[in-house]
Design brief:
Elements (H helix, E strand, L loop, with lengths): L4 H13 L4 E2 L1 H14 L8 E4 L8 H8 L1 H4 L3 E5 L16 H4 L8 H4 L2 E5 L16 E4 L9 H9 L2 E4 L6 H9 L4 E7 L6 H8 L4 E2 L8 E6 L6 H9 L8 E6 L2 E5 L15 H7 L18 E3 L13 E4 L12 E6 L3 H6 L7 H9 L5 H4 L6 E2 L2 E2 L5 E5 H4 L5
Parallel strand pairs: 2-3, 2-6, 6-7, 12-13
Antiparallel strand pairs: 1-9, 3-4, 4-5, 7-11, 8-11, 9-10, 13-17, 14-17, 15-16
Length: 401
């Protein structure tokens, strides 16, 4: 059966709308403040690129433009994507900002992206450099971040800061990783389990930002986007009711990924010993129960971050939420359960036939999973949820009694 092109376009538009999450000023300011607290001159004399952006609606451009002088920026560059190439835009009308400019072009406004620049010149003559001093021009192409045109701007910049489309997160991160540029980008907390993302994190080339996935982030979304009623109501309680232009949603699993230093990633977790966890832990699956070992790997299962034993010398399997509290001076990251190559490298064996038989005997049905490199627990026979594997550096170095 041939798909109706019109229906296909509607589906693409709906999917694209669900990929359009507009970051709020509060969340941008909170994250940037963490970098500034660690180093007040972090942006001084630097060029910041904001791709996937448009100052006509974006808080990223507004934040950096309004704080251009306070941050000591050298240059701000913001680029937008061509309306004709964005299926989320079902109808488009240029703003007065563009229509009243002599360089307005009826064709380019739809087919080309735009570049906005703030270079320290007081264009408006109001005695300061701010949003009103942005100058703009059409890009030669559509503004796709993968284009040579935007890549050249990346190479010019010292920082790339943006909220890329969630569906292109892996590709965007790979684009960033090819050059020596510092960055801060918004993504789903689940992205840490992507192989390339995790390996960058393990190599200390990437880490969670100060706003981890334990913090609610509110996003504006285009009218017509699919928004859970509970998330819409949570956003409203946080001060973001729907308006004529946008609905708002709360995403509790969103966070920042960065390679910009902030002090919170150097704070050590305060942990109880194994003995004290077993005696006093608030977790029922830990209190009064010895830590279980995996069936096919020499490591213990730790089901909660606050149950990590501070005196354990060996490898521990912990939830991915550990990365919100990860201090590279305190812990070494060993591997990631979702990366089978990594699992083989650290000595994880395929699940045994005995385990599989026991797993199925208690009702386990994940046959494909049961034959792979995930770790299993034999009492009862089950697989834990996603785990990463860590070792305590303090204990290894004899710094913990």
């Amino acid at each position: 059966m041939t798909e109706d092109p019109k229906n296909g376009s509607l589906r693409n538009a709906r999917k694209a709308k669900n990929d359009e999450f507009y970051t709020q000023w509060r969340d941008i300011e909170q994250e940037m403040n963490a970098y500034l607290e660690y180093d007040p001159d972090v942006f001084k004399g630097k060029t910041v690129l904001l791709p996937c952006d448009d100052p006509e609606w974006s808080n990223f451009t507004r934040y950096f433009a309004e704080r251009f002088e306070a941050l000591g920026l050298k240059k701000l560059i913001s680029t937008s994507y061509a309306p004709n190439c964005n299926p989320a835009i079902t109808s488009y009308e240029p703003t007065l900002f563009e229509l009243e400019d002599p360089q307005f072009d009826e064709t380019k406004t739809r087919a080309n992206g735009k570049k906005f620049v703030l270079d320290g010149t007081d264009v408006s003559g109001n005695g300061r450099v701010d949003f009103d001093d942005l100058t703009w021009e059409y890009l030669d192409g559509d503004g796709d971040f993968r284009s040579p045109e935007i890549t050249a701007l990346r190479d010019e910049a010292d920082f790339v800061i943006t909220n890329p489309p969630f569906s292109l997160f892996r590709e965007f991160l790979a684009w960033l990783a090819t050059d020596d540029v510092r960055f801060s980008i918004v993504g789903s907390a689940n992205s840490v389990t992507y192989r390339d993302t995790f390996r960058m994190l393990q190599a200390n080339k990437l880490w969670k930002g100060a706003t981890a996935n334990t913090t609610d982030m509110v996003f504006a979304v285009p009218k017509g986007s699919e928004v859970k009623q509970s998330d819409k109501e949570k956003a409203e309680r946080l001060g973001y009711p729907s308006d004529d232009k946008y609905d708002y949603t709360r995403l509790g699993n969103s966070c920042w990924y960065t390679n910009i230093e902030h002090g919170r990633r150097h704070e050590s977790l305060q942990l109880m010993t194994q003995e004290d966890n077993i005696r006093y832990s608030k977790r029922k699956s830990v209190r009064g129960i010895a830590y279980q070992k995996y069936d096919n790997y020499d490591a213990i299962e730790v089901p909660f971050v606050d149950a990590i034993p501070g005196d354990y010398e060996g490898v521990m399997g912990v939830p991915i939420t550990f990365l919100d509290k990860y201090n590279p001076e305190q812990f070494e990251i060993i591997g990631n359960m979702d990366d089978h190559e990594s699992m083989r490298e650290i000595g994880v064996s395929p699940i045994s036939e005995e385990f599989i038989a026991g797993y199925r005997a208690v009702g386990g049905t994940g046959a494909q999973r049961a034959g792979g490199y995930w770790v299993g627990l034999t009492n009862p026979h089950r697989f834990p949820f996603k785990r990463i594997f860590i070792r305590n550096r303090f204990v290894q170095n004899g710094a913990c009694e």
